Prior knowledge:
Pfam families: Neprosin (PF03080), Neprosin_AP (PF14365). By secondary structure, the chain is mainly beta. The protein contains four helices and 20 strands.
Amino acid sequence: MDLKGFYCFMILLIVSFSDASRLSKTPVKSIKSEDGDVIDCVHISRQPAFDNPLLRNHVIQTRPKFSLEGLPANKLSNSKNLPIAQLWQLSGSCPEETIPIRRTKQVDALTASSIHRNLHSTVARHTEQIRQEGRPKLQLAAALVEGEYYGAKATINIWGPLVQQSNELTTSLLSISRGSSLSNLSSIEVGWQVNPSLYNDNRTRLFTFWWNRFKGCYDLLCSGFIQITNKIALGGALSPLSIYHGEQFDIDVFVLKDASQDVWWLQVGKETLGYWPTSLLPNLANSASTILWGGIVFDSESDGQHTTTQMGSGHPPEEGFEGASYMKNLQVVVESDNLSPLSNPVAIAQQPYCYNITLGKSSYWGDYIFYGGPGRNPNCP
Length: 381
Ligand SMILES: *[C@@H]1O[C@H](CO)[C@@H](O)[C@H](O)[C@H]1NC(C)=O
Ligand SMILES: *[C@@H]1O[C@H](CO)[C@@H](O)[C@H](O)[C@H]1NC(C)=O
Ligand SMILES: *[C@@H]1O[C@H](CO)[C@@H](O)[C@H](O)[C@H]1NC(C)=O
């Protein structure tokens, strides 16, 4: 299949996945959020994941068999690690036994073109090609480790970067993957993004993404991720955002393989969101080989100039705390139940004058990065 054929195939696949799930779900309750979102509380056993034939007889796991604390977070007094705050929570809550699902219009699935869907996995796949000549569409500033990993963790600073035009996006994420070609790549991603073509606005939203051999998707837009919490909506807007030279906010994200359950758990803040069964991600059945932390911008400018879409806070790493965006307490699980600091992380910045990254290590923050930048500027024309 050529690339164009592949993208068409992807769109069909994703649309048919998400249609099936949308039509069959009758919410127990619906919540109108002040940001314009409608959150449907759908019974946990009727969530999109169970439309997937691979999960037809799946027994829902109610909790992970782990409790890992990792490095103590937030020793630096002026950053706030809130119990994860989403705008819709101000307007109501979902009952027990249900999960909040952000309602999407038909058009979302169509306009969120496949290139956006596979962009995160492109990163994992092409860490070498990413150092290519010329101006790449997909720009990355990230830290990377390679080895055998059973989990990874980070505390991610939350910002509201500007996106120049609606077919671009900016994201800050943790990515866990194995495989180097489209045909054998499995990946899991979690973080925040501003992605107007997916969410129809410029808000900073919590997202997840998974990819396996030619298919994958965001949030609960197709069947795959199994959600167990009634408190957090995937795709929901995050609030408050950090303020330049002001108050800082961040969230903890943690992805962990549970060997006894054959699943990868996702924890955000103190909340266990749910999990990806490894039956969907065969290359991640045992462990991951690449972990990446950082920012990605998708640049679609056609006038020869660099996009002004910002990464992170929109400010370069040398501005440090309260200026640039950070990720701290970067940790990996190298043996079962053992969170460790990074060994030999590599920093990748494709166009450091546009978006850059610095690596650091301290007793307060563990391994950390500052990353991001403004995009177009006199040194990045
Ligand atoms: C994935 O495919 C590439 C080339 O197609 C191959 O070199 C690599 O070993 C494969 N990796 C796995 C995990 O199967
Ligand atoms: C997002 O912001 C850009 C420019 O900042 C604006 O052109 C666009 O209309 C906004 N998109 C949405 C969906 O609000
Ligand atoms: C990018 O960051 C690295 C590491 O801190 C630094 O050595 C380099 O000078 C920076 N590049 C630019 C263009 O700012």
